[in-house]
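Hey, can you fold this one?
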Amino acid sequence: MPSVLQRVYANRGINHVDELDLSVKGLLHFNQLTDCEKAAERIGQAIIAGESICICGDFDADGATSVALLMSFFRSINHSKAFYLVPNRFSDGYGLSPTLAQYAHTEGANLLITVDNGISSHAGVSKANDLGMQVIITDHHLPSTELPDAFAVVNPNRRDCAFASKQLAGVGVAFYLLLALRAWFKQQQANHAVASLKIAEYLDLVALGTVADVVPLDYNNRILVRQGLARIREGVCRPGITALLAVARREASKITASDLGFSVGPRINAAGRLDDIQQGIECLLAQDLPSAQILALRLDELNQQRRKIETTMQEEAQACLARLQVDEQELPLVLTVFDDQFHQGVIGIVAGRLKEQFYRPVMVFAEADDGTLKGSCRSVAGVHIRDLLEQVASEFPDVISKFGGHAMAAGLSVPKSQWAAFNRAVQQVAERWVDADTLARVLWSDGELQANEFNLDVAGALQQAGPWGQSFPQPMFDGTFKIIQEKWLKDVHLKLVVQPFGSNETFDAIAFNVPRASWQWNSPAQANLVFKLDVNEFRGQRNVQLLIEHVQA
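Sure. Predicted structure:
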């Protein structure tokens, strides 16, 4: 292992070589998940009895992969009485609602399984119970003080759950449910198809949903992602993922976790944000490549449309801030933005972009069909946004009608009449909850590279190591460089040729989507760069390339 990679791993808390073994034998056992075996037994009984099972999903990539995972499973064992429902983002709201429970009952469901939602669906679970259905909740979002009155609640973030990895995505919880279900059949019905289920076949979906949901990549999640990536690289994955990689122009045999997060995930999310997540689910469920390709092209079109809307909304958000006459030097601790022209489907994206620009928790709101204001929140490290919302709701019970989420992202609804009161309440709580030092933007570097470390072997080793992601970031370095050549591409991308001090070699370096005014330097041309070491492949040639994250002239 290159010494630089040893340093990178040490910087991320890896203390022993065993922690680099990402084989499936390192996975935590499903029996540590509270209610997992109880839920598996109930599903097993439903399969044997031929009961009708409804899967209630969510309208993002984690929810879509979770639904696809369970539906693929039921289809593989020919359980024809399984179907799925996903609420419409615009008309139904989030999670298992009473309306959705009623519809599932109308469709004949005996058992209802939520995936990537349900932990806050008290009313929906009560309605299902009243209708004679039993509910199994599989979720990973933070629960409130009381759990819904479901038959089983499988969630690593339950207060009474001993599962060591609290960072499982919704699709990870669904995967663990399958592990427990297979074990139950091995004990009770050893000749049944489920007892010999090849659960590794679902790891491509688990990797995609885990990366797309931006959950922290702890050891357990890194195993799930590494194993899923290995299957995709080997071409042993479902046609839908193959087709989505193709429309994103990503070579499956060479993909990394970031390709799932920045290329595949957004195309699935675009369906949920602008149209119907069912298109994303059906793409993942496609049985052959031609069918998957048609759906992937539609998802690609939606993603392009989403980008256009996002650009417009960014401009609108900036205009809104200008109308509010916010001084960037005196921004509020939590930035709240509403404009009646905002589109519900992309307020999360806008919140994320504003968070990056101003580096503080951001809440962006659009008007919902029911007259309330629907908000999407994005936060920074050190500010648990879901807990902050709970504190606001506790102290000011009238200003939030519902909310849910986790540390870095959350959603909520605010009565329109309470908008001003909500803003005052948020700032009052933020004064106690948000330390100004937390809002100082910090770039963490893995240090400087030696001149002999700017080579393809090191760059390739860094690229294939990991997998990198949330809380286990891709290696980033810093150093002083001579600027040999510079040019702007489309006026937004900065292309450089740089030379490390102490070296005679030069390398291409590029910074994507940067403000031109902020990236200037005086002669003699040199700059301190923060960068990622990358491998650029073009026309069969492989060269070291620096991906610039920050420049200090």
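The chain has 16 helices and 15 strands. Let me know if you want another pass with a different chain boundary.
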